[in-house]
Amino acid sequence: MSANLPILPNAISIPARDATSENLFAAVDIGTNSFKLLVVRADPSTGRFLTVDRFKERVLLGLDTNTTTTSATISNASLLRATAALRKFQKLLQSHRVPSSHSRLVATSAVREASNRSQFLQTIDETLGLKVDVLSGLEEARLIYKGILQFHPVHDRTVLTIDIGGGSTEFVIGKEGQILFSVSLALGHVTLTQKFPEVTEMREHIKVIIRASGLNEKVKHYNIDKVIGSSGTIRNIEKAIFRGYASNMEGNVGISEESRRDWSFTTDELKGLVERLSEEERRVGGKVRTQGFFKKRSEFIVAGAVLLEEIFEELKIEEMEVSGYALGEGVIAEKLGDVFDNYDPRANARWRSVTRLATRFNNKQHMKSAALCFSVAKEMFDGLRKGYESGNGSDGFFVSLEDKDLEYLEAACLLQKIGLYAGKKGYHKQSYHIIAKGDHLHGYNAEEVKLIAVLVRHHRKKLPECDHVVPEELTEEMRGKFRILCAILRVSAALEKLQLVNIHNVDFSHTCEGYKLVLEAGNLPFPGYVLPSVKNFETEHVKELEHFRMVFQERLSIAVTSS
């Protein structure tokens, strides 16, 4: 979708839009250890999604609560727990009003390998009216890889992904969204815990399974660029390493250190954690500490860590990055591809690289003001574009605005203040250098990164003169986009000076007198609070408003109301 700018012939008002349930999607992962429900809200123009809710129920399929053995048959007790969990999920889906066609329930190894699998599926169907898709090991691995691609910008790289579940571990070697090799091995943290009380026997069993799979040869055959782990077990291992569990220093990580978290760990760090966990198992009171840190996962964390250590050893892995997304997000991504015609499977990876850079340098307050800036910028962008779509064009300046341009604008809003870490003076220039000179934004081409960088550079202070400040490597079309987006960004960023606690609603409209931006302030800090003076703001920021008038050939007035 595109629009020609900048003359708006007819009066039009575009209020802020409310998201509807039509853009909600859900995935239910029926795993060996737990059942997980993921609800997301997707942008229909790009397919990029944001998590609305996550729910988790510990079910332990195949584990009889009266014994400590695993079985290939799902017990009646497990079936009752499963039914109760899915009934709860069903009510949650109904409360969110997720369309039934936008949700999918998938089951993994516990159901896949159960001798009474048909009975389990029939009971769920007859009791709750829910259809469950039982994934093969290869299908599970494919969807996990798809989910990881939504989190990590590794679409163009050859990656090995490893996902440790309760009953199996999935391995995928993939590149550009295509699977080069995948295998599902019957090695899970729940089943290993129950079958092998002795770690030595467990290690030998793991070695035998991995060596018989041919995985070693496949890893050697492909030139692996990155190794990425997913699942709760691997995320908990990374969390324990990051928080200093092995060195008895957990709990001493501050907010600034958390924002610089790399979401990765080395083989030496993993070995140190396994040694510490083994010591805790033998030491009196050690299990209490393990339970306190790992909570409900504590009884299986030793098996999960030992399994991962053996995988590192067998496949000669030196470092692993960790994904926050896995099977559930893969199911969602596939569903989005079915529903949205223009779904871009790399939109989420691009977005993740922006937010990761923003949180690395911005504090909580800067992130809040960046989100406020974008809430205004988005309504201005949408209002201008929709208005021009209803017009007949003009003989003035033309530029085509597309959905991706809003993505550039959002990135600039989030990254405008990252240079403040080095001090307030000239921070916009520092922000520019971080974006333009660093290898931080992935999934964007060089021209797109440069556009975001120059938008950030000119969101404040000296007004941009397009012929002088925009790099020559930008095409004429990109220069036109810069001119429009920069005018929107400068106004949106300057509105922070109004010091509103938050903005309840934004309305951007056009009449014969020009454009009008109305901000409805919500949650006033105390009774009798006086709204900030718009007149003072317009006086202080006459340059921004004049720049807007030059670009769009119309004046802009601003008003603030209270809800």
UniProtKB/TrEMBL annotation:
Residues 350-517 form the Ppx/GppA phosphatase C-terminal domain. Residues 49-336 form the Ppx/GppA phosphatase N-terminal domain. GO terms for molecular function: pyrophosphatase activity. It comes from the Eukaryota. InterPro entries: ATPase_NBD (IPR043129), GppA/Ppx_hydrolase (IPR050273), Ppx_GppA_C (IPR048950), Ppx_GppA_N (IPR003695). SUPFAM superfamilies: Actin-like ATPase domain, HD-domain/PDEase-like. This is Ppx-GppA phosphatase protein (Exopolyphosphatase). It comes from Solanum commersonii.
